[in-house]
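[Q] Does anyone have a clean structure-token version of this?
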Amino acid sequence: MSRFYPPKSSIHILARGMVTRGDAIVLCRVKGSDHFFLPGGHVENGESVREALSRELQEEMGEDDYQIQNCIGIGENIFLYEADILKHEINFVFHVLVPEDVPIQAKEDHIEFVIVPQSEFGKYKILPEQIKKGLEKWLDTGKPFFKEIYG
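[A] Here you go.
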């Protein structure tokens, strides 16, 4: 499927963390929102994806006692935002280990974290949906994923 969009439709590169603590997974959401996403954010010009994830986790969680592991998946997401703004993003997802004694608290006022047992991961509304499916596959098989997303 070929589409053309005006030059203002830029592509965003994001670094995301599948943050685990023991057998639990840390999810993030904007306060009051009905859906969750993985912690992380935009890669800045001149910054590696891994560096961006480290910076974003520091900004969002305030802790640096975590271990960024391998990249476990890549997800492309193309979607309409607010009905008339096209968004196109490439998400690089890394597994991140956090020790059980490290507190998980949001350092940014507009977000909150929820810690869910791995067995309940599938019950949560996590966006983008295809990344959620890729993560479920990774949790089940340990194999990295690549997902193209049109929504």
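[Q] Thanks! Anything notable?
[A] The beta strands are 11-21, 24-30, 40-42, 67-81, 85-97, 111-117, 145-150.
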